[in-house]
């Protein structure tokens, strides 16, 4: 049996401000840092120990991973980073307040933009300063891979090849793996591992800083998955994420 851990970054500055973030590279708040350390403590207490870690090219996930590993005394393990684990690109919504956007366009429309499987938010213009082609960290990416917006289906399409080629083989050879990434990039992997339908994925919300464990059999089929931590706190945190996209 294999166990892998998925960890969404701790609270970011724009989580706190309730703004659409996507590929905007915001940092953690103090609470987010504390959540990352706490995730490490919980994992250590439950007997987890990692051989290798995977994360995105975004500061909030990178720092969450570092703080988590530090509190587990595992700062020395190899860390592989890829843009394929980045948050789903939120297109022209990036920077906007989620509740204000819901007040303007309606809760239903915002739910579609946030959670539907195949309807992307409005796209950025190529000339927009928020376009990732203007960010040197993506300079080596083929132009066609640079998103102007993404729906979850697009995110699945970029995440799964990385899972298959880089992460899964390490797990298969017996390495214990943690993946520190983002709400929607982790929903992509969640959808795949838990075999969630295109319709049902709309109801899946991943809270910040709470380790999510997947237990997989030899065929890489999910036997069970669960969050570590107090179930009531997890439930509340998931509801809070769902409510972020509603008008006040
Ligand atoms: O990109 C963002 O705004 C968040 O990281 C995830 O947001 P969501 O829960 O609104 O999809």
From TrEMBL:
<dbReference type="InterPro" id="IPR001345">
    <property type="entry name" value="PG/BPGM_mutase_AS"/>
</dbReference>
<keyword id="KW-0324">Glycolysis</keyword>
<dbReference type="GO" id="GO:0004619">
    <property type="term" value="F:phosphoglycerate mutase activity"/>
</dbReference>
<comment type="pathway">
    <text>Carbohydrate degradation; glycolysis; pyruvate from D-glyceraldehyde 3-phosphate: step 3/5.</text>
</comment>
<dbReference type="Pfam" id="PF00300">
    <property type="entry name" value="His_Phos_1"/>
</dbReference>
<dbReference type="InterPro" id="IPR005952">
    <property type="entry name" value="Phosphogly_mut1"/>
</dbReference>
<feature type="binding site">
    <location>
        <position position="98"/>
    </location>
    <ligand>
        <name>substrate</name>
    </ligand>
</feature>
<feature type="site" description="Transition state stabilizer">
    <location>
        <position position="182"/>
    </location>
</feature>
<comment type="similarity">
    <text>Belongs to the phosphoglycerate mutase family. BPG-dependent PGAM subfamily.</text>
</comment>
<feature type="active site" description="Tele-phosphohistidine intermediate">
    <location>
        <position position="9"/>
    </location>
</feature>
<dbReference type="InterPro" id="IPR029033">
    <property type="entry name" value="His_PPase_superfam"/>
</dbReference>
<feature type="binding site">
    <location>
        <position position="60"/>
    </location>
    <ligand>
        <name>substrate</name>
    </ligand>
</feature>
<feature type="binding site">
    <location>
        <begin position="183"/>
        <end position="184"/>
    </location>
    <ligand>
        <name>substrate</name>
    </ligand>
</feature>
<keyword id="KW-0312">Gluconeogenesis</keyword>
<feature type="binding site">
    <location>
        <begin position="87"/>
        <end position="90"/>
    </location>
    <ligand>
        <name>substrate</name>
    </ligand>
</feature>
<feature type="binding site">
    <location>
        <begin position="114"/>
        <end position="115"/>
    </location>
    <ligand>
        <name>substrate</name>
    </ligand>
</feature>
<dbReference type="GO" id="GO:0006096">
    <property type="term" value="P:glycolytic process"/>
</dbReference>
<keyword id="KW-0413">Isomerase</keyword>
<dbReference type="InterPro" id="IPR013078">
    <property type="entry name" value="His_Pase_superF_clade-1"/>
</dbReference>
<feature type="binding site">
    <location>
        <begin position="8"/>
        <end position="15"/>
    </location>
    <ligand>
        <name>substrate</name>
    </ligand>
</feature>
<feature type="binding site">
    <location>
        <begin position="21"/>
        <end position="22"/>
    </location>
    <ligand>
        <name>substrate</name>
    </ligand>
</feature>
<feature type="active site" description="Proton donor/acceptor">
    <location>
        <position position="87"/>
    </location>
</feature>
<comment type="function">
    <text>Catalyzes the interconversion of 2-phosphoglycerate and 3-phosphoglycerate.</text>
</comment>
<protein>
    <recommendedName>
        <fullName>2,3-bisphosphoglycerate-dependent phosphoglycerate mutase</fullName>
        <ecNumber>5.4.2.11</ecNumber>
    </recommendedName>
</protein>
<dbReference type="GO" id="GO:0006094">
    <property type="term" value="P:gluconeogenesis"/>
</dbReference>
């Amino acid at each position: 049996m294999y166990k892998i851990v998925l960890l969404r970054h701790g609270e970011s500055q724009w989580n706190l401000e309730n703004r659409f973030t996507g590929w905007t590279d915001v940092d953690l708040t103090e609470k987010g840092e504390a959540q990352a350390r706490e995730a490490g403590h919980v994992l250590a207490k439950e007997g987890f120990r990692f051989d290798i870690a995977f994360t995105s090219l975004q500061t909030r996930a990178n720092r969450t991973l570092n703080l988590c590993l530090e509190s587990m005394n595992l700062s020395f393990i190899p860390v592989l980073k890829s843009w394929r684990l980045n948050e789903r690109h939120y297109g022209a919504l990036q920077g906007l307040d989620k509740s204000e956007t819901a007040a303007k366009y309606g809760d239903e429309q915002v739910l579609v933009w946030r959670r539907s499987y195949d309807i992307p938010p409005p796209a950025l213009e190529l000339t927009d300063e928020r376009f990732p082609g203007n960010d040197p960290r993506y300079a080596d990416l083929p132009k066609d891979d640079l998103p102007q917006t993404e729906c979850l289906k697009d995110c699945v399409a970029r995440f799964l090849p990385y899972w298959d080629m880089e992460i899964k083989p390490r797990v298969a050879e017996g390495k214990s793996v943690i993946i520190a990434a983002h709400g929607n990039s982790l929903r992509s992997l969640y959808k795949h591992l838990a075999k969630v339908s295109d319709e049902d994925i709309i109801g899946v919300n991943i809270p910040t800083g709470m380790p999510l464990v997947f237990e997989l059999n030899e065929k890489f089929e999910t036997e069970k998955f669960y969050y570590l931590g107090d179930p009531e706190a997890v439930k509340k945190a998931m509801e809070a994420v769902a409510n972020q996209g509603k008008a006040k």
